[in-house]
Amino acid sequence: MTSNKVEYQKILSQIQNEFSDTPLSGKVASYIPELAKVPSNKFGMHLYDLDGESHCFGDSNERFSIQSISKVFTLSLAMKMVGDKLWNRVGVEPSGDPFNSLSQLENDSGIPRNPFINAGALVIADVLVSAFSNPKAALLAFLHEITDDSSIDFDETVAASEQAEGYRNYAMVNYLKSFGNIENDVEEVLDFYFHQCALSMSCKELSQAFIIFANHGKILGSDREFLTGQQVKRINALMQTCGFYDEAGEFSFEVGLPGKSGVGGGIVAINPYYYAVSVWSPPLNPKGNSALGMAALERLTTLTGFSIF
Ligand code: GLU
Q: Of these residues, 70, 90, 204, 245, which one is catalytic?
């Protein structure tokens, strides 16, 4: 099967219709006060295929807070900067615990289970704070290059909102530092972390950015390799096993694609060598994943008839 034989737009329109009358289930995240202000009925989806064609519906062009989806971008940059040394400081196993759990760190002596739980992402943030004199500018530059869109930016209001209430992340980074797994000043690491989570991007921009994970580390139409084939293989494996909080098994079972979600209600998934797809619906299920987003992606792999399995 080649991607241009699949009628993606028809399938996306069907998904939009199927869910148009479904009552919303789940709750919009409120522990970051700014996120609670987002209307719960936003719903958009964008699929970018390897022929360079875009397929979409709904609020797919509206920017939202990507939150933990940013952890895939920071992991990518950290792998480029320090290579395999990274794995001395963070593991590659699913955690099976909530994303903001502190208790696992005690047993694991300050080595977070994987880069997508908060503890792991804070270690990755520390790596980037060490690697760049201006890590926020480096992250934006990476995103601008892979999307060819220099207007992508942090939402300072969301970053400040999380910083004001980010007690758990403050606790986490201090705890990590007590184990010697944070090199820099904790305020500097948290400032970078709160900003990466406050990146504002649309489904369309996320699909464009994630195409590198479906296309051997390259953007479409270019030979420039942003990530090596081996790095892409590893990042996709981590998305598959750890990308959905402690619901990664359920996501594999229902959808069958590597991906990453965030508490802003976004989910990005890739079908290697076929497409990158993003969906946004703010209400979250009890595990923290967009309830409607997950259901829409389940329909996508069912209606197209293929996932990675
Ligand atoms: N900024 C959020 C936090 O650290 C990210 C959570 C998420 O999207 O998983 O709590």
A: 245
Let me know if 307 is a catalytic residue: no
| Rounded Cα–Cα distance for residues 215 and 27 (Å) | 34
Which of 73, 118, 245 most suits a substitution to test ligand 1, by most atoms within 8 Å of the C-beta?
118
191-214 per-position pLDDT tens digit: 999 999 999 999 999 999 999 999
Rg (CA), the chain: 18
Confidence band, pLDDT 50/70/90 cuts, at residue 3: very low
Domain CATH code at residue 187 = 3.40.710.10
Q: Is 32 helix (H, G, I), strand (E, B) or coil?
A: coil
pLDDT, tens digit, 9 for 90 and up, residues 51-60: 999 999 999 9
What tokens appear for 171 in the block? 């606790």
Q: What band does 284 get if pLDDT is binned at 50, 70 and 90?
A: very high
Q: Which domain holds residue 129?
A: 3-304
Ligand 1: distance of its center to the CA of 21 in Å? 30
Find the catalytic residue in 28, 60, 71, 274: 71
- Is residue 273 part of the annotated active site? The answer reads no
Strands 54-58, 64-65: parallel, antiparallel or unpaired by DSSP? Answer: unpaired
Structural domain contains residue 242: yes
